[in-house]
Amino acid sequence: MDPALCRSLNTMSLELLADYLNVEFTKIDQLYKELLGDQQFLDEINEQIQKVRLTYQKGIFRHSNLESVDWFAIQRIILYILVRLNRPSVCLETGVFYGGTTCFILNALRRNHFGKLISIDLPRNSDDKMSRHYLVGDSEDIPQGLDIGFIVHPAQKERWTLIRGNSLEEIPRLNEKIDLYNHDSDHSFAFIKQEMTLVWEKLNSNALIMADDLDWSNGFYSFCVEKKLYPLIITDNGKSGLKARTGIVKIDHPSRKKKDITG
Ligand SMILES: C[S@@+](CC[C@H](N)C(=O)[O-])C[C@H]1O[C@@H](n2cnc3c(N)ncnc32)[C@H](O)[C@@H]1O
User: Fold this and answer.
1) Nearest to 97 by CA among 175, 135, 150
2) What is the position in ligand 1's atom list of the atom closest to the CA of 97?
3) Hey, which of 97, 107, 171 would you mutate to test ligand 1's pocket, going by the most ligand atoms within 8 Å of its Cβ?
4) What's the Cα-to-Cα distance from 50 to each of 9, 12, 76, 105, 159, rounded to whole Å?
5) What is the dihedral of CA 8, 10, 14, 16, to 10 degrees?
6) CA 186 to mean position of chain CA atoms
7) Which of 122, 134, 152, 191 has most ligand 1 atoms within 8 Å of its beta carbon, as the pocket-test mutant?
8) What pLDDT is attached to residue 35?
9) What pLDDT sits at residue 4?
10) Is the CB of 122 under 6 A from ligand 1?
11) Helices (H) and strands (E) in the chain — how many of each?
């Protein structure tokens, strides 16, 4: 990663985000800088990385010490900013694996002194993984001796509920209204459509939706067309080329009411 390039690509994406949310860019940039300057969070991440590296050295765990959160995909940085900006009461994420998105959401909730995160992931190395999207490979197998969310530092867990199960079975059991939903579980077309349809019933009228790995199927786009949503699409910050990777939807976005924006 080239840190300067990454920072400037992140900033360009955050300008798009500000425009989409109709929020002053300076407000978004302030939150990005707050995150970049959060030494406690970075120290906690590095502490976890050092523990995990004894058994696992893939992805972000290749590095023994991160000098900045810019090493993470822009999706995580945007999640932090959205949680700080909107102060959601209930966040839901599907797909935890090592806990990249989880720790950014939890860190923002900790700063807010408000709200909680419900995360759903399959039980450790369960058989359901056998039918996953072909791009997954073995990249999401929890290494021996570690548990789901292994980058999440104990000091970040106060506002966290982890549900071990299939999101399609667990979402209907949730009793709360959701303010922010992050999809990062199974990215196959049919699965995304089913998961998003289940969550849709639980969303507050001004909720935010985020989805990762958009390039794995057209499920997210199809859902947006079906519900006439107006999404913002963000490219990755230079680590996987400039693929369209992350989708964000503000479900009460004013453009939603305009005719033929989507569909
Ligand atoms: C891409 S990883 C999540 C990465 C994570 N958000 C992060 O930032 O580190 C996808 C995860 O989705 C989980 N998953 C796949 N199918 C699922 C399902 N039906 N229900 C819940 N979780 C599922 C997998 O077990 C895997 O841990």
Assistant:
1) 150
2) 27
3) 97
4) 28, 32, 20, 21, 24
5) 80
6) 13
7) 122
8) 98
9) 82
10) yes
11) 8, 7
As assigned by CATH, the class of the 73-257 domain is: alpha beta
Residue 16 has what pLDDT? 96
How many other C-beta atoms are found inside a 10 Å radius of the C-beta of residue 201? Answer: 11
Find, among 173, 41, 165, the residue nearest to 109 by Cα. 41
Residue 115 exposed, middle or buried by CB count within 10 Å (0-12, 13-18, 19+): buried
Q: Which amino acid, one-letter code, is at 190?
A: A
pTM here?
A: 0.95
**Strand runs labelled E in 65-143:** 90-94, 116-121
Q: Which atom of ligand 1 lies at the shortest distance from residue 166's CA?
A: 20
3 state DSSP class of 211: strand
Amino acid at 180: L
Which protein residue has the closest C-alpha to ligand 1 atom 7? 100
Distance 210 CA to ligand 1 centre (A): 14
CA of 123 to the centre of ligand 1 (A): 10
Per-residue pLDDT of the chain (263 residues; tens, 9 = 90+): 777 888 888 999 999 999 999 999 999 999 999 999 999 999 999 999 999 999 999 989 999 999 999 999 899 999 999 999 999 999 999 999 999 999 999 999 999 999 999 999 999 767 666 666 777 766 678 888 999 999 999 999 999 999 999 999 999 999 999 999 999 999 999 999 999 999 999 999 999 999 999 999 999 999 999 999 999 999 877 666 678 899 999 999 998 877 765 55
Q: How far is the CA of 236 from the centre of ligand 1 (A)?
A: 19
